[in-house]
Amino acid sequence: MKLKTFWLKSRISTLVLGALLIFTNCEKENELFTEETSEEIIVTQEKDITEKAFPDKKGKVTEITYQGQQLMVEEMDGVYVFEGDILITPEELQNANKSTGRTQNLWPNCIVYYSIESSLPNKQRVYDAIAHWKSKTNLQFIKRTNQTAYVNFRKGSGCSSSVGRTGGKQNINLADGCSTGNTIHEIGHAIGLWHEQSRKDRNTYVNINFANIQAGKDHNFKTYVQRGEDGDEYSPTLDFGSIMMYGSYAFSKNGMPTITKKDGSTYSVQRTALSAWDKIGVSRMYKKVCGTVPNMSGYYKANDGGHYYVRHIGIDVYWFGEHPNGSWANIFKGKLDGNKITGNFYDVPKGKIQGSGQLKLTVNYNSTKITKTQGSNFGGSVWNKMARPSSLPGTRTAGFGVRNNINNLTARWYANDGGYYYVRQVGSRVVWFGERHFTSGRPAWANVGYGIKIGNNIYLNWADVAKGNANGNGTLQLKMNGANTMTRVAVTGGFGGSSWSR
Ligand SMILES: [Zn+2]
Q1: Residues that bind Zn(2+), according to the entry (predicted)?
Q2: 3-state helix, strand, coil in the chain (%, to 5)
Q3: What is the pTM of this model?
Q4: CA 231 from chain center: how many Å?
Q5: Any catalytic annotation for residue 186?
Q6: 210 to 73, 164, 196: CA distances (angstroms)
Q7: How far, in Å, from the CA of 202 to the mean position of ligand 1?
């Protein structure tokens, strides 16, 4: 059995390690070691999953000047190793004006370019780690073609990475013992995360037991402030569940904990997945870099065959979508946060289907593509922005609706502005798609309404969408005069129509 001594203190015998790996989380684990020295017993209670660049090596500890600050580092194999698995290369020292922190050197447009060396064993852990990052964060990972700045995954003697984007080729080194979880951790460094115990407020949550730390490793236990590095806290408290948190026994020289909670107790860490706060933290950290997508307004074609006319005003995103064969039509209103949109869609009676529900969407950072991340009862899942066709689906008869019911507005209405309004009411929610009557080409104007009905009053936000040529938006208050007529009470934004009937 080839043992991954990398994970554990090398002083422990191979035989003992084998037993440990088999009996992890088993009570027998302790029995196995009770006759051994107390030093080893304690170590084996906590599997050390902390990443190390050079697990079997001790480098010469030297002080270097980096980012204008003095840093204690270990020199190993021509690079400076900092906090165990953070690499500073001689090239980076040359570029001393570059930061490697959590507030600078982030990846522009949230795109991390990468390559994987063909000689790296078990590439699946890299694929899995990247898939994890893509599914849990806004970051995109794209295979490098000719980009100057990129992450290169390669075989190494431990697990290590630079912190943040260096601007050139930067290696993530992975020994055979580096798991998918360790790879997720190293990618965390590459996108700019410090270790969780490097928070400037960490002394509120943990004690660092310097007496138990291996000689020359003290520098691994400083906060980013103590090291003079840039950084920020993106979660309110120290997160013991963070994939970036060191375990209680990291760099222990004697099997006693190097980090404990304030009450002296030890704790476990995980290397499985980004924690809830890791995900929120990365989202906050990257908001500055990728926080605003360009205005999305325009025409999108989706993989459900539909035409979508999107209007983006501030953080509000509206659309009207319709299939050219008239089988369905819907409106949507959502809020944009970063590049995520959360909102609701309602089918309207320009089609025949009567669905509604929540949608969660992700927009790419040039607003050319939208992908659905949640909304199982909605057909489309990918929208691509393109030139608006010259000929769009014309006016239709209602696919569903009622008349003579003052409590249900669902119907096709006709207004004195020459428009047909496909209104849908669901509970107190009232939505519509309205467009100037036309038979070919496209309408003079088209708009989406989204609001509520209280008694016989209807309060709406309205916004023109890119099916027509108008570009207004505002509010509307309407009043039901009877079951089949309503009139305008108040308006902002220059809305034409003032009376409706069905
Ligand atoms: Zn690390």
Answers
A1: 185, 189, 195
A2: 15, 35, 50
A3: 0.54
A4: 19
A5: yes
A6: 17, 28, 18
A7: 16
